[in-house]
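Quick one, probably user error.
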């Protein structure tokens, strides 16, 4: 197979060839992305990704650095998994649902009955708002944070208390504690937090969770768990195993690059999951289930994405620091920095240069959130920074 033919074939099979006007991957159900290149190893295949993805993303319009997506998309093995679902897309209750539940349970080290598979982790947050926020249920959340749960709560007429972050951009645990009472139905925590990209102190957060789990239910959103580099960071899953009324949410949208396929996870005691299950709307789509199941077992891809994210993040932070900008300590796939002017102005200037960046997150209306693209994209973005700031 010639180099040009094999590369074209690979683009088709990984789906990114669509943007270049090549055949739809769905028309090639029998082909498997990880096998087409014969002599090329998986590691080499992954190494080709940066160049190809960067070219394809540029061809598709402004580079998306606005929604904390994975610029590389799904792993080639997830693509294989998705193709395997071809025979099951007409089914309800496909066996892959139970398989993914078991795969994820093993991945995080909990019994299978401690896992609920949902349509993105947003569905975990929506069901929590339904289960705990109705009829004026009191919810306490940091602010700003990922807004879905407070937003659902507000829609349901819950009493939502938004507690401002402290001056280090951490959850203000003292202020949150003061808001929590025996009538509080739910406490939302987001660690690392979106949009600030920061981690709370591990021990302080754990103490807070343990204390408050005695009087209410606590949800810890760990959507960015896989991007954290701080060595002493720990998931709160062990507190779930200790029997506390804690829910940990995770997602297949970020490191697994499956945001459009909508797969997420709740980890909690079976009695809590039973309550949430009564509100879910049904199974996630079968393509997502297969892709997530394969991706969770693709350690090489997860390491690759983590490394590329680390590289892109370091490039951007270094460029911002060189310009004297304040930047938070990002432990995620995005960076939050002080622009010193309205975000909308920076957004418009970035768009004119071919980059779509994050919106404003009040009250930090002169801080920007920029998602990490491929390292090459971050080099290009760093180069235009002096002209847009
Ligand atoms: C902190 C946080 N939680 C949850 C989500 C929702 O993710 P999903 O795609 O799993 O619904 C996001 C999405 O950006 C997020 O930033």
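Nope, works fine. Designed sequence:
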């Amino acid at each position: 197979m010639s180099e040009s033919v094999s590369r074209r074939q690979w683009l088709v099979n990984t789906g990114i060839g669509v943007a270049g006007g090549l055949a739809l991957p769905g028309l090639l159900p029998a082909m498997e992305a990880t096998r087409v290149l014969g002599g090329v190893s998986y590691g080499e295949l992954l190494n080709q990704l940066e160049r190809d993805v960067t070219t394809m993303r540029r061809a598709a319009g402004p580079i998306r650095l606005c929604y904390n997506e994975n610029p590389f998309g799904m792993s080639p093995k997830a693509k294989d998994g998705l193709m395997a679902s071809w025979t099951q897309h007409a089914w309800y209750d496909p066996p892959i649902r139970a398989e993914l539940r078991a795969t994820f349970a093993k991945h995080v080290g909990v019994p299978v009955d401690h896992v609920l598979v949902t349509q993105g982790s947003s569905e975990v947050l929506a069901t929590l708002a339904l289960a705990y926020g109705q009829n004026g249920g009191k919810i306490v959340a940091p602010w700003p944070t990922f807004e879905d749960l407070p937003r659902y709560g507000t829609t349901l007429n819950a009493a939502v208390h938004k507690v401002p972050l402290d001056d280090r951009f951490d959850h203000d645990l003292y202020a949150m504690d003061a808001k929590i009472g025996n009538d509080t139905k739910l406490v939302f925590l987001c660690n690392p937090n979106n949009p600030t990209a920061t981690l709370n102190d591990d021990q302080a957060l754990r103490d807070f969770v343990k204390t408050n789990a005695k009087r209410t239910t606590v949800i810890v959103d760990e959507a960015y768990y896989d991007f954290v580099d701080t060595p002493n960071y720990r998931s709160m899953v062990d507190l779930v195993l200790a029997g506390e009324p804690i829910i940990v949410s995770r997602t297949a949208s970020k490191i697994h690059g499956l945001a459009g396929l909508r797969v997420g996870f709740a980890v909690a005691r079976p009695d809590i999951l039973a309550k949430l299950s009564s509100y879910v709307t049904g199974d996630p789509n079968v393509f997502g289930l297969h892709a997530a199941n394969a991706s969770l077992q693709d350690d090489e891809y997860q390491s690759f994405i983590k490394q590329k994210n680390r590289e892109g993040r370091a490039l951007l932070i270094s460029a911002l620091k060189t310009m004297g900008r304040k930047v938070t300590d990002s432990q995620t796939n995005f960076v939050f920095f002080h622009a010193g002017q309205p975000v909308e102005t920076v957004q418009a200037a970035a768009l004119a240069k071919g980059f779509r960046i994050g919106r404003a997150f009040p009250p930090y209306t002169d801080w920007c959130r920029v998602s990490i693209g491929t390292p090459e994209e971050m080099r290009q973005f760093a180069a235009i920074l002096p002209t847009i700031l």
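Residues 68, 120-122, 146, 190, 194, 221, 223, 251, 253, 259, 264 surround pyridoxal-5'-phosphate (CB under 6 Å).
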